[in-house]
């Protein structure tokens, strides 16, 4: 929390600035904060910035749901990620909504 607060103050970062950035620019900007990784920024993009085309490939819940629904083999991580990306590309530009459906399906 201290790292985030310090970053926001020193960079004079505002919601308005974040809203003006594209998704990858937000990820690059915020992952400069110690302790903040890509997954964290993706969750921020989905929930706070309301971006509709975010696919969180590293999210465990998404991986588990896709493994079951699409009968994917997660043992080869590189191939698994490629297959997940190929499937998720079909959902663009609404991949955030697909992630929400996958989380809901997994949790039910």
Summarize the structure.
By secondary structure, the chain is mostly helical. It folds into two domains: 2-47, Endonuclease III, domain 1; 60-107, no CATH class.
Essential attributes:
64% helix, Endonuclease III, domain 1, elongated, 108 residues, mainly alpha
Based on helices, strands and strand pairing, what is the structural class?
A: mainly alpha
Give the helix proportion (percent range): 55-70%
Mean pLDDT equals 97
The overall number of domains is 2
Order of helices and strands: HHHHHHH
Beta-strand percentage range: under 5%
* General shape: elongated
What does this protein look like?
This protein has 108 residues and is mainly α. It folds into two domains: 2-47, Orthogonal Bundle (Endonuclease III, domain 1); 60-107, no CATH class. 64% of the residues lie in helices and 0% in strands. The chain has seven helices and no strands. It has helices spanning 2-10, 15-20, 23-30, 38-47, 60-69, 77-89, 95-107. Helix 3 (23-30) crosses helix 4 (38-47). The longest helix is centred in the C-terminal third of the chain and has 13 residues, at 77-89. It is elongated, with a radius of gyration of 15 Å. It starts with a helix and ends with a helix.
What secondary-structure arrangement, pairings included, does this model have?
Blueprint: H1 2-10, H2 15-20, H3 23-30, H4 38-47, H5 60-69, H6 77-89, H7 95-107
Helix pairs in contact: 3-4, 5-7
